[in-house]
Amino acid sequence: MSPILFRHRVAAAMVLLAASVASAQAQEHRASSAPVPPKYRQECGACHVPYPAGLLPAASWQRLMNDLPHHFGSDASLDAAATKELSAYLAANAGSDRRMREQPPQDRITRSAWFVRQHDELPAPAWRSPAVKTPANCSACHQQAIQGDFDEDRVRIPR
Length: 159
Fold this sequence. Notes:
mainly alpha; 7 helices; about 0% strand; globular
């Protein structure tokens, strides 16, 4: 193969790779920055951070919405109209990139492989801190979690 042809093939491969990465990043950004319906903030945010829809795959959200009377030990039942509205929002904005397609054990965000990897440097006592109590308490360390901002540059781990 001539050096010129080789350089053209390498350049073409790099362009395809860059386009693929840009597409995945755009998809992830859309999933995490989709406008959140006020009903979602009101209903789900009453008990916990209204998790961005992109943090779970659609199948996980569907199972959670179909079993609201048994929502992790609480009755989170909604009327039929609210259930339909929120289910549609979650399905349309669910995580679909490679790391989010995996269905975590028991459909728990905190048990997903990506969550565990992102938090593996935290010592066990940090999770048991009275200010944190549980990995599901995102707001304890991510002060902007309510807005869907989980940027690790703005994390403050309580002591």
